[in-house]
Amino acid sequence: MSDREYTPALFNDAPSKTAEATSSFEEINECQYISKNLGDSGQKETMTCDCPEEWDEEAARNLACGEDSNCINRLTSVECNNRTCACGKDCQNQRFQKRQYAPVKVIQTEKKGYGLVAEHDIPEHLFVYEYTGEVIDEAAFRQRMIDYDRRLLRHFYFMMLTKDAFIDATEKGSLARFCNHSCSPNAYVDKWVVGDKLRMGIFAKRTIATGEEITFDYNVDRYGAQLQPCYCESPNCLGWMGGKTQTDAALLLPDGISEALGVTRQQEKAWLKQNKLTRANQQSPDAVVNEEFVRSLTVAPLVDSDVTKAMSALMKVEEHSIVAKLIERLFITDDPKTNALIVKLHGYKTLSKVLKEHGATDDDLTFKVLLVLKRWPSMTRNKIELSQIEAEVNTIYKELKHPETKELAAGLIEEWSKLEMAYRIPKNNENGNNEVKRSMSPLFGRNPRSELPAQPIAADESGVNLNDDEELPEGWQKALDTNTNTVYYYHTGLGISKWEKPTMAIPKGPKVSTPKAPKAPSKQKKNERPRPQKRQDEKDLTRLQEQRLQQMKEEQFKEVREKEKLLQELIIQSQKDVEEKKRLAEKLKQERIEKHKERKRKREAAAAHSKSKSSNPVEQVSPEVAWTKTLAKYIPNMIKKHEAEIGHENIKGCARELVKIIAAKEARKQDGKPPRELDNAKLAKLKAFSNSFMEKFLDKYRSKRVKHNGGEQ
To answer: How far apart are CA 614 and CA 321, in angstroms?
Structure first.
């Protein structure tokens, strides 16, 4: 049966166990980092999109950067930021920051412990929940695996964020930790750049029905201390999950990576099957992907539909073999239109990151990256400055010894040095300093872009003609925003700007036609009389313009005050919600205390009742029961040496069986109670019988293991 024909179970009637489940760990909204550098995205500067603001008056929200938009940030798994992006405040690409989670609840499953189910239908690719926890380094990760294993924790909650950073949601996390494993999952895990950090979210792989359990593939995304049986019950269930094992499923490429490389899951599985016997010697013990499979790929040039997948993967992937193949796809892509799209989707910033992380260790990859940069069209210096790629190329020129690579790097540096900076609108830096070095732009920010169509741009050889005869009101000037290639207007005196062309504050009035007079000296003196009136008209015009601009300032100030008022109301409501949550938590705590007291009262009453019966004659204990109690002190220690091979549970089962057999035999042989302590002769007989019993059990156990291992494909 295929995945499409498989109908998952629905748990619409299952009671919610969310409150009970969240009492077992500390719920946190964002990851907590044991070191501030862990989980860094590797981007030195915030990535911005060029979407216009799209305000919906009825819904009272900004619709920019939505699911169906062409937002370059959303396409490359980067969230927008109110402080830096031009798309307006609170756009639709801030799901991690706003915690826009799908409606879910925790339930109790039959075999898997808790599980997470959808309370409403969840559309394909919708953000379900962020996977939060403590972000730890590799040393702490390995130590905690050992510690949790010693504590016999049944469930594990590790997720790899980067090569040297792991999310541990065991003691601190979110509801996402209750997503169970499935060999046919309906969700997947994806990493997004939010600010300067990588964050991990769970997204719907297909439409998830109301009441359906939300699952993803642990073998691809999650780490546990030991291999565990799988209870997903899907048609293609592998039988096992967890453990960093070199199984076929554990080494399959994540969906986003395989799509970026242009290969299908069927191709990879076919390669695994054909190379099952030889790949063990070729594969690195710590590898998390099929390195040999990736190296064997013959990749194809990128087409427009592949660019978003490739650039998104290249920004996040760390495995060198995958980075090399993705760079090869860029290298063999000659189409100018596709290359322009690559540049638009943060091309310079992405290749700057690649050079920083892999340039010093792979000369061939570095050479290909430089050739790709050489091929890209040079327009202005803005993208070079923002991406800081020139510093990486300078490092390559100084440190690498390969003559062709050095020559190529020198050529790029010289070419970029001749580029000019275009007019651009400065952004506030992280320290709050509004100064922008070497910037010729006015030092103020744009107002949100209106819904009016952008002004067309008249291009000349340099790109845009800003020196036309377009008439503007006094004090207004225009410039070019290079991010959107659109003209905007600004007023230097007021420190404001706008996208639409400003209208005249008041009409200058009709021209007064003065009848021509003869050129007699006396007539000329009379004609000089209107000049003071013209100066007076100019003063009135200036005064009215100032009044209009002052009114605009007051309206903007009023708008800011309204937003502050709304924010204050939201803060008050949030405080009320927090207080209500604390009240409910306290109520739940008191209920647990009362239940504990009630159980204690019942135990004390039962103990008192038992004590009152102590004067009654004690029931005669049978010899078999007496022998069972005596033998239970000796038998487990005699066979404990086999625990490492067959496990704790099997040892317990064997001990119970041995005690039962020997107690029955001894009870039949002699009357009365057994001695409290057994002599050496008796102990020797018990040991001999136990060894004989365990030899037979081990023979059966090992033969089953051999048969089971030999039958795996």
So the answer is: 76
Q: With DSSP H G I counted as helix, E B as strand and the rest as coil, what are the percentages for the chain, rounded to 5?
A: 45, 10, 45
- β partners of residue 78: 193
Contact 236, 184 (CB under 8 A): yes
List pLDDT tens digits, range 452-476: 344 443 444 444 555 555 677 766 7
- Both structure tokens of 177: 């930790």
Other beta carbons less than 10 A from residue 567's beta carbon: 10
Per-residue pLDDT reduced to its tens digit, 404-435? 888 888 888 888 888 877 654 444 444 444 33
HEC letters along 2-53: CCCCCCCCECCCCCCCHHHHHCCCEECCCCEECCCCCCECCCCCCCCCCCCC
Distance in angstroms between the alpha carbons of the first and the last residue of the chain? 19
Of 388, 408, 389, 386, nearest to 397 by C-alpha is 408
Q: How far is residue 627 from each of residues 345, 656, 661, 667, measured CA to CA in Å?
A: 78, 13, 11, 7
CA distances (Å), origin 483, targets 171, 373, 453, 477: 44, 19, 16, 19
Neighbouring C-beta atoms of residue 57, cutoff 10 Å: 7
| β strands within 429-555, DSSP E | 476-481, 486-491, 496-498
Helices 347-358 and 320-331, axial angle in degrees (round to 10): 140
The rounded Cα 597 to chain-centroid distance in angstroms is 44
Q: How many CB atoms lie within 10 A of CB 477?
A: 12
Domains and CATH numbers, the chain: 1-241 (2.170.270.10), 422-508 (no CATH), 623-710 (1.10.1740.100)
262 near 305, Cβ under 8 Å?
A: no
Please tell me the distance from the alpha carbon of residue 80 to that of residue 681, in angstroms, as a whole number.
80
Beta-sheet pairing, 172-173 with 55-56? unpaired
From the list 53, 47, 57, the residue with the least C-alpha distance to 454 is 53
Rounded Cα distance, 371 and 409, in Å: 9
Residues 359 and 396: beta-carbon distance below 8 Å:
yes
- CA 644 to CA 641: how far, in whole Å? 7
SS3 204: strand
Q: Which residue's entry shows tokens 């892999």? A: 358
What is the average per-residue pLDDT within 216-239?
Answer: 71
Structure tokens at 300: 């194809």
Task: Compute the distance between CA of residue 498 and CA of residue 549 in angstroms, rounded to an integer.
Answer: 14
Q: Taking the complete model, does pTM exceed 0.70, yes or no?
A: no
Give the Cβ contact number of residue 604 at 10 Å.
10
């009101």: which residue's tokens? Answer: 473
286, burial (CB in 10 Å: exposed 0-12, middle 13-18, buried 19+): exposed
Name the H helices within 108-254.
138-150, 218-221, 248-251
* pLDDT at residue 178, as a whole number: 94
Residue type, position 483, single letter: N
In this predicted structure, what is the pLDDT of residue 457? 39
Q: What is the largest CA-CA distance in the chain?
A: 156
Digit-coded pLDDT (tens) for 48-105: 888 888 888 888 888 899 888 888 899 889 999 888 788 888 899 999 999 999 999 9
